[in-house]
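Hypothesis: this fold can be encoded by more than one sequence.
Test: take the structure tokens below, design a sequence, compare later.
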């Protein structure tokens, strides 16, 4: 037997993380740079002012910055969804409120229930919440939204998380008051139609404090006369536009759209505005 054994190198595997995948990334970057250079050349060819060139470069750089910030936020919320304990140890300065306020309880058991039931809730939430309730609320918010409708609703596989729950029962009479901290960074896809134009959103990020009031308490089933719910303050919302929405996904217009959406939500569900679901007739709310 020879002193040295022949060593065989592992075979090259093509796919994710391989030379082929890196080549695709390089080609995409190259095409992006070529598109930018061509746009600048086109502006010069038609004798546009240098201000237009600077504007194009500014929009391109600002768009990259927005996308990067959105990806960072989405990654952070996904880390919370996947491994709460590991994220808590890594980000001590961003601990949820239940760490600092002992009267706010963790809700991991609720999150486990939501995670298990989420795939089965897709059809119900689509019909009962979005099409029957949300569409009505949006149409009532403004006359310009009278023909608003949903074209596609897919809640995806990633459910929302409840970070903390606080229940008030001591200083309230004939009612139960619940404050819930909710975060969402899922894979839902939504498409809506307005004035014949279809606009979609994905990569939705959502952080909100919701108050739910079960009142009045009654002596017959279902024991609660009505459910009232609202946001304690404007929720933090971000998303990526698709379809016709990409036309306004540029600096300034995207932020303006977020402001408009926040205003619509505020007019419907941010305190002092609220939504009431009565369970029993002739009950004072």
């Amino acid at each position: 037997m020879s002193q040295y054994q022949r060593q065989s190198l592992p075979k090259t595997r093509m796919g994710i993380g391989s030379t082929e995948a890196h080549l695709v990334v390089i080609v995409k970057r190259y095409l992006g740079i070529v598109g930018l250079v061509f746009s600048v050349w086109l502006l010069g060819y038609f004798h546009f002012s240098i201000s237009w060139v600077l504007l194009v470069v500014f929009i391109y750089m600002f768009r990259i910055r927005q996308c990067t910030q959105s990806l960072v936020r989405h990654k952070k919320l996904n880390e919370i969804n996947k491994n709460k304990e590991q994220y808590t140890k890594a980000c001590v300065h961003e601990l949820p409120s239940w760490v600092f306020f002992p009267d706010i309880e963790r809700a991991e058991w609720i999150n486990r229930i939501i995670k298990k039931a989420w795939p089965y809730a897709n059809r119900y939430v689509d019909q009962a919440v979005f099409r029957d309730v949300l569409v009505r609320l949006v149409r009532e918010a403004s006359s310009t939204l009278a023909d608003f409708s949903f074209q596609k609703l897919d809640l995806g596989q990633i459910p929302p998380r409840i970070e903390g729950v606080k229940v008030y029962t001591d200083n309230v009479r004939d009612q139960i008051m619940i404050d819930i901290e909710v975060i969402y960074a899922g894979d839902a896809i939504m498409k809506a139609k307005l004035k014949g134009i279809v606009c979609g959103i994905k990569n939705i990020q959502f952080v909100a404090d919701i108050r739910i009031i079960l009142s009045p308490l009654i002596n017959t089933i279902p024991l609660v006369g009505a459910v009232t719910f609202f946001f304690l303050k404007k929720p933090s919302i971000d998303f990526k536009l698709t379809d016709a929405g990409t036309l306004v996904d540029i600096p300034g217009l995207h932020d303006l759209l977020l402001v408009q959406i926040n205003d619509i939500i505020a007019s419907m569900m941010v305190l002092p505005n609220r939504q009431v679901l009565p369970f029993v007739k002739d009950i004072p709310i």
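The chain has two domains: 19-71, 84-278. The beta strands are 149-154, 161-168, 176-185, 189-194, 197-214, 226-231, 236-243, 275-278.
Hypothesis status: open.
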